[in-house]
Amino acid sequence: MRIGIYAFDGITMFHLAVPQMVFDEVTRQGLASWETFLFSDRKGSVSTAEGYRIEGVLGLTPAAQADVVVVPSWFDDGRDFGARAERVLVEAHARGATVVGLCLGALPVVESGLLEGRPAVTHWQAFDLLRARHPELTVDDSVLYIDHGDVLTSAGTASGLDACLHLVRTRLGAAAANQIARSLVIAPHREGGQAQYVERPLPREAGDDAISRTLQWAAEHLEEELTVTSLASVVHLSTRTFLREFRAVTGSTPAAWVRARRLDEARRLLETTSLPIERIAEACGMGSAVTLRQNFAAAYGTTPSGYRRQFGDRTGT
Fold first, then answer.
1. Residue pair 68/100 in contact by the 8 Å Cβ criterion
2. Ranges for the HTH araC/xylS-type domain (predicted)?
């Protein structure tokens, strides 16, 4: 798979490096043959915000052959992307490539008309700008990324790592994404969105510590019945206090977090074992194969058996 990453004068090294680091690691780990390249409005070089000059940047034409086109960032004033570069996004999308806008890179993707009224996410500091320009667009601060299959947008800065790992997960499976995450020493999956950072930049340490202990305990007891009461009792909090702290720290609800972890575990078992679906449902706390199938279909648009057929061979099952 060829992945074209748009570079421009003034981009930060971090934004430019995120998709390269994640996607190139796929090849370094021997999981698949993925190739990244940088392209821009003109062939040659770009100067980063830190003052470095990066050579070997391709022009716009090679992006026509990319399977994925990534805009990793953009200017915070939302200036015009340029007709030629915008046309690259539109034409790539039209021929079936996935278009990705990370952080403020979501702005050019939206401006290109590729979302057609579908929800998007970007850095929280650009919410007002995006809403003013596109009042018909739903801007969601409750998630770190939104994947429509053909177009993916992510929240601010480090959320680009989450979005890129998600792309690895959808193409190569949960086990591959977990391997990449371990290699890069980052979380394979994070819950919540940007609201927690907008409302409360510095979390309370005591609450964070209690919730962290609960999350670790819950991840080790997925086969058990995990109610709000049982989770709160782990750290000796009232249910009201626990719910408030959980939302503040994770940006999610306990039920949503537990369901996502159980589905993650189900995918891992489907990829790496030959256990029957009923046994997997029990092991991840879904209770029955019917419940697992219902939740799996709602989350991924496929059945557990279909998922195993698609990803099982990649992990040696």
1. yes
2. 212-310
pTM score, two decimals?
0.70
Name the token pair of 277: 């679906």
Cβ contact 190:202 at 8 Å: no
The yes-or-no verdict on residue 116 having pLDDT over 60 is yes
139 Cβ contact partners less than 8 Å away, ≥ 6 residues apart? 119, 120, 121, 122, 127, 130, 131
What angle (nearest 5°) sits at the alpha carbon of residue 208, between those of residues 203 and 213? 170
Contact call for residues 177 and 158 (beta carbons, < 8 A): no
Q: How far is CA 204 from CA 131, 194, 239, 249, in A?
A: 31, 17, 18, 9
Summarised one tens digit per residue, pLDDT across range 39-88 is 999 999 999 999 999 999 999 999 989 999 999 999 999 999 999 999 99
pLDDT at 203 over 50: no
Hey, what are 198's tokens? Answer: 């907008």
Spatial CB neighbours of 268, under 8 Å, sequence gap ≥ 6: 174, 175, 178
What are the structure tokens assigned to 290, written together?
């019917």
